[in-house]
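Give me the fold.
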Amino acid sequence: MSSNSIEAILIANTQAWVERAVIGLNLCPFAKAVHIKKQIRYVVSTAATHEDLLRDLMIELEALAEISPEKIDTTLIIHPYVLTDFLEYNDFLDVVDETLVDMELDDAIQVASFHPQYQFADTQPEDIENYTNRSPYPMLQLLRESSMVRAVEAYPQAEQIFEKNIETLRQMGHTGWEALGLQPLREKK
C-alpha cells in the first residue's frame, strides 16, 4: 500500500471519529462549525521518533500561527508511528508545553491531547469517561486561543462540557461507543 493510501486511510478514520464522536455526541460543541466550514487541517506525521514529531509539531505551530483563522482554525496532527504508549505520550505533552513557550505561542495556541489509550488520573483504563479523549490514533490538536475564547463566551455553561461528556458516555456505555464503528482500519501489509 502506498504512503498516500495509508495517509488517506488515517485521515478518513480521523474524520469519521470527528463526525461520529466529537460532533455526533457533541463532545466538543465548537467542532461542528469548523468542520462544516472545512477549517480543520488534518496532518499525518510519519515521525518515528520524539525528535521528528517535535519537528513536525513546530512546523504546524508556525503554519497555524501564520495562516488566517478563516482558512484554518485548528490542526489535528495524527502521529500513528510514535508515542503509541499512552504514558510515553503523556510525558511528551510537557515537551509540547515547553515548545509553545519557547516559540512564544503559549498565549496564541493551545494543544489538546487525544490517544487510543487515553486515561485520566484516578481512573481505570477501561472507564468510559476516558473515551472523551480517545481517538483512533495518537494525535495533537492545535487550537487558536482566540477562537477558544470566542467559542466559550458564546456557549452557555462551557465549564460543564466535561461533565456532560462523561454523562453522555456513561449513558451509552461501551456497547454504544463500539456501535459508532470507530475502530481504525488497519494498514494492509
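The CA atoms of residues 50 and 82 lie 7 Å apart.
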